[in-house]
Structures are given as structure tokens and as C-alpha cells.
Amino acid sequence: MTDSAEPNSTDSRIENAKNILAKVNVKAQPKVLIELNRLARSEDVSFDLVADLVSQDVGMSAKLLKLASSPVYSKGQKFGSVQEALMAIGFEEFKTCFMSVTLEDFLGSMGYPYKGFWDHSRRIAIYCREIAKKFAKRYVNNAYTLGLFHDVGAVLIPLYNKAYVEHIHRTLPLYFGITELEYKMVKTNHCAVGELFGQTWGLSPAILTAMRYHHKPENDTKWTKETTTLKAVLQLAELINDKIERDSDEFASFSPAKDTFAWICEYFETTPSHLSELERHLSSLEK
Ligand SMILES: [Fe+2]
Ligand SMILES: [Fe+2]
After folding, report:
1. Distance (Å, whole) CA 119 – CA 221
2. Which ligand sits closest to the CA of 239?
3. Whole-model pTM?
4. Res 77 pLDDT > 50
5. Which ligand has the shortest distance to the CA of 118?
6. I want to staple 261 with a disulfide (CB 3.0 to 4.6 A). Which of 159, 184, 207, 252 is the partner?
7. 207 C-alpha to center of ligand 1: Å?
8. CA–centroid distance, residue 154 to ligand 2 (Å)
9. C-beta atoms surrounding 41 within 10 Å
10. Which one of the ligands is nearest to 235 CA?
């Protein structure tokens, strides 16, 4: 193996990702999110406490109400207060909504090195949620969270290596050669950096593993069903997004995406023609 070839073991990538995160001084999970997760662990989540907590930050509450009132979460209702939104959409959805505005705010403060980045993350998150609703209902919220965070490492690496900006657009779609290219450049990749960042934000192990391998076609038999399912949901979201963006009649124009697509169809016991219906639904969603 040459020095620049990506190793099979993920250890050095994670070590190098740690160095990047340490150098760019990325802050850990915001305090309000930590507190929200703490409240979520209690048996009976107090909506009053949640609403009080979130309402403390007027700017964030306004962004939250805007997103909660959008077609992503609401069926046409416009919410005037955090309490009202919480009651209508339920705590789990509310938490993903809060996570979304918090992450957007955080990334905005870093300054996006690639302007299409957040649009891609949000779109893929919405697609992941709709795909999970159809094929893996119990993972709907984790699928959405995975979509939001899956490429976050691509925003963090340029803070450490400016030349990396040129490569960001290639990390967004399901391009299987990207991690090797990134390894040559920064001795790690956006998946490993994103995984470590996600850890500090308290994401679940299933989400983190799916994030680490989202540009890999293969799966590991030791993974939990949730990890395998989340990875399949994310990769399908990327493939459908790619088809919509290319305005093409065909899914997965390139190899090994074709094999991955065939595996996903088998895993979800579906067919390309059924997925075309889902694609029409996804492309009709107001983002
Ligand atoms: Fe990616
Ligand atoms: Fe992506």
C-alpha cells in the first residue's frame, strides 16, 4: 500500500479526524440541546419545561416556529408559540426540528464554504424521513437526523485545510471514490470528521456508524438492523436526489451505485418502478 492509499482500518482516520476537530476548535453540543436531551430521558416529558427552555432564546424560537410551521412538519397550521408547536407536532418531531435549527445556526456561524451545502443536507434529511416513513417507520426521526448531519464533516475540514473547499461538492452525492481522495488530501474523510462531531452532539451509535460508512457500498454483518437500515435509507435518499437533479429516467447511472441500488431494492423489498412513485412524491415536497 502506498502512503497515500486509504487504509482498511478506520483507526488512523478517526485519529486524524480528532486532530482536525481539535485544531478547528469545534464546540460541543449546545447547552440547550443537552438540556433538551436530559428532559427527553424522563418518563413523562414536561411540555411546559421544554417550551420554557426553548423559548429562552428568542431568535432560535422564531426560527424554530418558522420551520415547525413549514410543510416539512405542519399540515398547513401556523404556530404562534413554542408550546403550540410542541403540542401539535409531538415531542420527538419537535426535537428533530430543534436539532435542525440548532445545526443550521451552528454551521452558519462557521461560515459555509460551499453555498449549496445546507440545501443538500436539509433536502436529504427530508427525503430520509419520507423513505423511513415508507420502509422503516420506527427509525423516522433517526433517519431525519442522519440526513441532517451526514455531510457535516465536509464543512469542518476546510477550516483546517483551505484547499479542501474544491472537493466539497463531491462529498455531497453518493460518490464512492470520495473517501480515498480525501484520505490523500487530509489523511481522513468527511465521514470520520462528521462522526466525531456527531458524537459530541449526542447522536446515537446507529446514526454515527451509518454516517461513517455512507460512502461505502458494503455493509457489515455485525451491524445492528438499525444501522444497516439507516445506511440504506440515506443511500437511497442520495440516489433518488441524484436522479431528480439529473432529471433522468434511470436510477444510479454509475457503478458501484448500481449494485448498491439493487441491494437497497432487495433490502426494502421494493422495485425501481415503486421507487419512481416515491421519487415523484419527494420531488413534489416543498422544501
Ligand atoms: Fe457525504
Ligand atoms: Fe450527501
Report:
1. 33
2. 2
3. 0.92
4. yes
5. 2
6. 252
7. 14
8. 10
9. 7
10. 2
Q: Which ligand is nearest to the CA of 241?
A: 2
The C-alpha cell that represents 220 in the structure block: 457489515
| d(CA 235, ligand 2 centre) in Å | 9
Please check whether residue 164 is in contact with residue 158, taking contact to mean a CB–CB distance below 8 angstroms: yes
Overall size of the chain counted in residues: 287
CA 121–ligand 2 middle distance (angstroms): 7
Q: What span, in angstroms and rounded, lies between the C-alpha atoms of 126 and 108?
A: 20
- 25 three-state secondary structure: coil
Q: How far is the CA of 82 from the centre of ligand 1 (A)?
A: 33
Establish whether the linkage from the previous residue to 217 is cis, with ω within 30° of 0.
no
- CA angle at 155 for the pair 62 and 194, rounded to the nearest 5°: 95
Domain ranges of the chain: 29-110, 114-287
Rounded to 5 degrees, what are φ and ψ at 52? -60, -45
- The whole-angstrom separation of Cα 61 and Cα 83 is 11
- The fold of 114-287 is Hypothetical protein af1432 (1.10.3210)
Looking at residue 146, its pLDDT comes to: 98
Q: What is the pLDDT of residues 15-58, one digit of tens each?
A: 888 888 887 777 777 888 888 888 888 888 889 999 999 999 99
**Ligand 2 geometric centre to CA of 174 (Å):** 6
Q: Closest-lying ligand to the alpha carbon of 171? A: 1
Handedness of CA 160, 97, 216, 18 (dihedral sign): positive
Q: What amino acid occupies position 17?
A: A
In 3D space, the residue among 270, 261, 220 whose CA is nearest the CA of residue 243 turns out to be 261
Q: What is the DSSP letter of 8?
A: S
Selection from 99, 121, 237 nearest residue 172 by Cα = 121
